[in-house]
Structures are given as structure tokens and as C-alpha cells.
TrEMBL record:
Keywords: ATP-binding, Nucleotide-binding, Transport. Residues 6-228 form the ABC transporter domain. InterPro entries: AAA+_ATPase (IPR003593), ABC_transporter-like_ATP-bd (IPR003439), ABC_transporter_ATP-binding (IPR050763), DrrA1/2-like_C (IPR025302), P-loop_NTPase (IPR027417). It holds the Pfam family DrrA1-3_C. It comes from Liquorilactobacillus hordei DSM 19519. GO terms for molecular function: ATP binding; ATP hydrolysis activity. This is ABC superfamily ATP binding cassette transporter, ABC protein. Transmembrane segments: none annotated.
Length: 299
């Protein structure tokens, strides 16, 4: 049987009169990697803070079968939140040693410093770290407790290419170990590669939950680019086509039924060449979803 790690039933949350989270339901099983995506201000960080017990909730939120923020949950969760640890006059290794002391089964600090390439920075003071280096130290802190559940809020902001690479490699290892994760990120290309399930949060409500494939099927616009030397054509008439742009012999066709459009295209216009077919990326789908909502708001 699947082990349920997080359970949320009809959760709402307000800051004063401002309702931020609106009737959310969610169940997360062991080993799932949830990619939580949403515009700025959608409520992602607020939701993570509720799951950590940093913001209040009622019995409708359970983490490891208990209340968020319980001693058990604290031992089992590693989190990497937004906001830097600008403590004065504390060195990286002193800070991490202190964190490790709070846990019963802490990972060896030395191995984490090596894995995250932090050995050359261990004697630096936190206050002198760059933004990206600070994120790496924050990730080290999240890993120290050898957590079963990780909340990673915008983990790669400010990281350089190498640090990002090391980060996603570590996530892959954690996935193989069966760890459960909720990751928020605005780098959708990165998140779509690791997430087993995507959740879109818009203005405090989940507007999509499922795999990337399922999301793509809902927004199934396909772009077919071709070269056509023939003057005699009417690509707009092909099945599924919603838009055609022509520039000389270059033609870009948008279709909501890519497979059938392509079939009919090749049947009717066998002489077209340089055919490329592109499905929607998560980035484009997300832009479309948020723009649609923006438009309907102004209706
Ligand atoms: N302490 C607070 N007091 C009042 N309002 C707050 C507080 N923290 C956040 N908010 C508001 O709650 C809303 C959701 O914020 P939250 O940080 O959860 O969004 P987010 O999805 O994480 O955004 P981002 O992508 O920018 O990190 C925003 O409108 C924000 O202004």
C-alpha cells in the first residue's frame, strides 16, 4: 500500500482579510516529487509554511500522520526556504555543525560539504556569501537531517551552472533513495524533468494536477514548421489548424490536433520539406494558462 506522507483537506488560509489559500485538497505519497508551480504571489511559499507548521492550520493538514510542526515532522523534514541566512560572524561550517546537532540521525557534514562542493567555502562567514553560494549552504542545511521529506522553495535561484548541475544531480540521488519532495521553481524546464506530478497553483487554488504529459494533452497545441515551394496551397483548411504564418516559402502552422494535421498535410502536400514538429513546453503552457486567467479577470 502507498504510504501517505501529506494530506490536506479543504485548506484555506488568510493573512488578515486577504484569503491566500482557497479550499485546497492534496494527498502526497512516499517517493513522489511534486513540482509546485504558480505565478508570483500565488501562495506557494504560504502553503509550504503551513506544511512546516510555521503558519497555523487545523486538523485538516497532516504531515507524517500528525500535525505540521510536530517533533516527529521536524526530525523528518528538510527545508530550503526563500530568504537568506544573513547571520553575522558565523562561519559556514560552524552554522552547519550547529544545525546537525539538532537531529538524531544527521548525515555526516563532511560528506555533504564534499558533495555540494562547499569545502573551499567552509571557513567563510555567512554574511560574506554570494546569493548563489548562500542557496548551496541552505541546501546543505536541508540535507543534514537526512530527511524523508524535502520542501525546496525556489532552490536554484542565483546558482551558477555548475551549482545547478550538482543540485539536480543530488535531487536525482534523493529520488532514487525514495525521498518525497515538493519543489517550487520558476525554472520550468528544470522542474519538468524531475517532477513525477505537477501542480499548478493559481490565486490560491489548484488549477491542474497531473503529469506533464497530461498537461500537454490539455494544451495540445503543436507547431509544425515546413518549407513549401508551391504557390497552390491552403494550409489553414487542414484539420486542427488554428493559425498559419507564412514568410516566403517558410510556413509555421499551429494545430490543436498535431497528428491528424501532419497526416493530412503529407497526404495533400507531399512536396513540402524541412518538416519540424514541436509540442508545447511547460513554460509555454504555463504562460498560456496565466494569460488566459488574466484576460478572463478583465472581462
Ligand atoms: N506575512 C505576510 N503578511 C501578509 N501578506 C503576505 C505575507 N506573506 C505573503 N503574503 C501575501 O500572500 C500572497 C502569497 O504569497 P506567497 O509568498 O505565498 O506566494 P508565492 O507563490 O510563494 O510567490 P513567489 O513566486 O513570488 O515566491 C502574496 O499576495 C503575498 O503578498
Amino acid at each position: 500500500m502507498m504510504e501517505q506522507i501529506i494530506s490536506i483537506e479543504n485548506l484555506s488560509f488568510s493573512y488578515g482579510k486577504n484569503e491566500i489559500i482557497k479550499g485546497l485538497n492534496l494527498s502526497v505519497n512516499k517517493g513522489e516529487i511534486i513540482g509546485l508551480i504558480g505565478e508570483n504571489g500565488a501562495g506557494k511559499t504560504t502553503l509550504l509554511n503551513i506544511l512546516l507548521g510555521l503558519l497555523p492550520s487545523k486538523k485538516n493538514v497532516q504531515v507524517f500522520g500528525g500535525h505540521p510542526g510536530s517533533l516527529l515532522a521536524k526530525q523528518k523534514i528538510g527545508s530550503m526556504l526563500q530568504g537568506d541566512l544573513r547571520l553575522s560572524n558565523v562561519r559556514v561550517e560552524e552554522f552547519l555543525e550547529e544545525v546537525a546537532m539538532q537531529y538524531n540521525n544527521a548525515n555526516p557534514l563532511e560528506s555533504i560539504l564534499i558533495k555540494l562542493n562547499l569545502v573551499p567555502h567552509r571557513r567563510k562567514f555567512l554574511k560574506e556569501l554570494s546569493g548563489g553560494l548562500m542557496r548551496r549552504v541552505t541546501f546543505a542545511q536541508a540535507l543534514l537531517s537526512n530527511p524523508d521529506l524535502l520542501f525546496l522553495d525556489e532552490p536554484t535561484v542565483g546558482m551558477d551552472a555548475q551549482a545547478r548541475h550538482i543540485f539536480w544531480e543530488s535531487i536525482e540521488e534523493l529520488r532514487e533513495q525514495g525521498k518525497t519532495m515538493i519543489i517550487t521553481s520558476h525554472y520550468l524546464e528544470e522542474i519538468q524533468q524531475v517532477a513525477s506530478r505537477l501542480i499548478v497553483l493559481q490565486a490560491g487554488k489548484f488549477t491542474f494536477e497531473g503529469t506533464l504529459k497530461e498537461l500537454q494533452a490539455l494544451h495540445k497545441q503543436t507547431t509544425i514548421s515546413i518549407t513549401s515551394e508551391s504557390e497552390q496551397h491552403n494550409f489553414a483548411e487542414l484539420v486542427g489548424v488554428v493559425n498559419v504564418e507564412e514568410s516566403g516559402s517558410q510556413v509555421v502552422i499551429k494545430s490543436v490536433d498535431g497528428d491528424r494535421t501532419l497526416k493530412e498535410l503529407l497526404l495533400k502536400y507531399p512536396r513540402v520539406s524541412n518538416i519540424t514538429v514541436e509540442h508545447e513546453t511547460l513554460e509555454k503552457i504555463f504562460l498560456q494558462m496565466t494569460t488566459d486567467r488574466g484576460n478572463s479577470k478583465n472581462d
